[in-house]
């Protein structure tokens, strides 16, 4: 994939494949939520245009769901940013002992002196 951020990272630094899996999973989750938001927005617009009281009342719940979804996407991107920053810190220390836990967070192992 040309222009793929992970491909570019892989060329310049050694990136843990587990980190890439976590990023991919989080980005796919965000994309699924954004797709759901598109459908919600379309339904909200249709309800608004109909001006029918029942449809307008339904929009209240749909807008709450939309807001909740937006918060979830923001949280996913914040977690991604944090995980990426931690992985970069681990790799910039020149220490290959930084590992990625299943929750996407970097786990630092202490190296003992000989």
UniProtKB/TrEMBL annotation:
Residues 84-114 are annotated as: Disordered. It is found in: Nucleus. InterPro entries: EARLY_FLOWERING_4 (IPR040462), EARLY_FLOWERING_4_dom (IPR009741). Keywords: Biological rhythms, Nucleus. It holds the Pfam family Elf4. Residues 14-95 form the Protein EARLY FLOWERING domain. GO terms for cellular component: nucleus. One of its GO terms (biological process) is rhythmic process. The keyword Membrane does not apply. Belongs to the EARLY FLOWERING 4 family. PANTHER family: ELF4-LIKE PROTEIN, PROTEIN ELF4-LIKE 4. This is Protein EARLY FLOWERING 4 domain-containing protein. It comes from Flemingia macrophylla. The lineage of its organism: Eukaryota, Viridiplantae, Streptophyta, Embryophyta, Tracheophyta.
